[in-house]
Amino acid sequence: MNAVNLLGFDLEGLAAFCEQLGEKRFRATQLFRWIHQKGASDFEQMSDLAKSLREKLRGKAHITALPVISEHVSADGTIKWLFDVGGGNAVESVFIPEDDRGTLCVSSQAGCAVGCRFCSTGHQGFSRNLDTAEIIAQLWYAEHSLRQRFKSSERVITNVVMMGMGEPLQNYSALVPALRMMLDDHGYGLSRRRVTVSTSGVVPMIDRLREDVPVALAVSLHAPTDPLRDQLVPLNKKYPIAELLEACNRYLEKAPRDFITFEYCMLDGVNDTPEQAEQLVKLLRGKVSCKLNLIPFNPFPASGLKRSSNARVQAFAEVLIKSGIVTTVRKTRGDDIDAACGQLAGEVQDRTRVEQRMVRAPVVVHGLGGRNPQ
Ligand code: SF4
How many CB atoms lie within 10 A of CB 100? Predict the structure, then answer.
């Protein structure tokens, strides 16, 4: 058989693989701990593993991280890695250190097929899904290289957000084992509250995640009405806001937190007026237990969109807060290394003719008679 990358197996998968080699389950647990807790990539390092198993593994398995193309460290401590995933594609991961936590933002696809108007990844188009090994390799590399860098024997990454490149719920079969590895006490041991899947609203998969691995959920909302959301998040045409909010309520029955986080990217003159804040209140208050996270837009030339002024963001936030909706304004991190939200571009061999898709719908801009802002 071809040698397999063990980074792609959750504990169940690894147990099944070991069984094929005629080994007992506890051997799989030992192996899993060596890989994920100790960051070992060489079977010879695994001193308490039977010599006979180490010999069986040689030639049949390997533990291989993604090649690092570049690493950038921001003045604020944020670190961005660009990983090579082959075929001319590269994906990005970002580590965001804070006083009480270390968060890793992980990619799930090379590019993204959803094509959100304000997202640099979306503008690149879609190349392919990452497999489980490629998703978990981002965490494996970041955790163990940061431990070395900070000379720490403790866990450095305390939170994972699936908010990098790609729509994780459109790569569900690879995502689920990766999430299980993050949560596994023999792996990264993160609580379900500290692992967040961010989705643009793939309703049937929200329902499946609720049954399979109900971690914290963030939903990219970005608009209070369907006509505007249709333009900003094209997936809305398939799963409109009312259906999405119903799925959020179903999800809350099993979620580890008692609220959904709604992400709302603040776009100057597009979705940031006080009237739109009122519409948002009407949409959400008393309907879904939620928090609103307002994200200052990170402009990139192809978007034709601009960041809302601070005053506008504050005024918008005040309407929400006054209505009783918990609202935060996200601090931008890693601005100087293009690691902020929506700026992850990587490198993608676009197979989707994204340019053609992008020109089809001009964003209706308030006060500009429906013209695209330039
Ligand atoms: S915001 Fe998320 S879902 Fe939308 S295009 Fe970007 S990566 Fe894809």
Answer: 5
